[in-house]
């Protein structure tokens, strides 16, 4: 049913550690599916069928700064990067 390519299929919203050393996770209980992170770091974040943000297999393609910006831009503070 879900054809998205997650960084870690066993935990689509992380935490996952990227090549940059960032450990990224989304708190699914907090995420309201606004999509802001998917616009700011489109290779990293994607909304799943439940409207929750997940971490995509292509996450290493986004600059670390873009992921930090997505974290800082999340209206509910659902993204953690360990920094
Ligand atoms: S910006 Fe935050 S609330 Fe919006 S989709 Fe991303 S994780 Fe969810």
Could you explain the architecture of this structure?
The model has no long low-confidence stretch (mean pLDDT 95). The chain is 18% helix and 17% strand. It has 2 helices and 5 strands; from the N terminus they run E-E-H-E-E-H-E. By secondary structure, the chain is of the alpha+beta class. The termini are far apart. The longest helix has 10 residues, at 64-73. The chain is globular. A 3-stranded antiparallel beta sheet has the order 1-2-5, with helices on one face. The chain has one domain (16-80): Alpha-Beta Plaits, CATH 3.30.70. Iron/sulfur cluster is lined by residues 26, 31-37, 45, 53, 74-76, 78-79. The site of iron/sulfur cluster has 15 residues, from helix 1.
Report on the biggest sheet.
3 strands, antiparallel
Provide the spatial order of strands within the biggest beta sheet.
Answer: 1-2-5
CATH topology: Alpha-Beta Plaits
Structural class: alpha+beta
Radius of gyration: 11 Å
Number of domains: 1
Q: Give me the count of strands.
A: 5
Question: Roughly how many Å apart are the termini?
Answer: 34 Å
Q: Stretches where pLDDT falls below 50 for ≥5 residues? A: none
Class, according to the CATH hierarchy? Alpha Beta
Count of helix runs: 2
Bound molecules: iron/sulfur cluster
Q: Roughly what fraction of the amino acids lie in strands?
A: 15-25%
CATH architecture: 2-Layer Sandwich
Mean pLDDT: 95
């Amino acid at each position: 049913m879900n054809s998205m390519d997650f960084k870690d299929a066993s935990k689509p919203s992380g935490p996952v550690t990227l090549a940059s050393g960032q450990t990224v996770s989304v708190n699914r209980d907090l995420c309201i599916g606004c999509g802001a992170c998917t616009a700011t770091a489109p290779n990293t974040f994607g909304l799943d069928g439940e409207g929750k943000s997940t971490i995509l297999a292509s996450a290493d393609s986004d600059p670390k700064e873009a992921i930090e910006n997505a974290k800082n831009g999340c209206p509910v503070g659902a993204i953690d990067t360990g920094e």
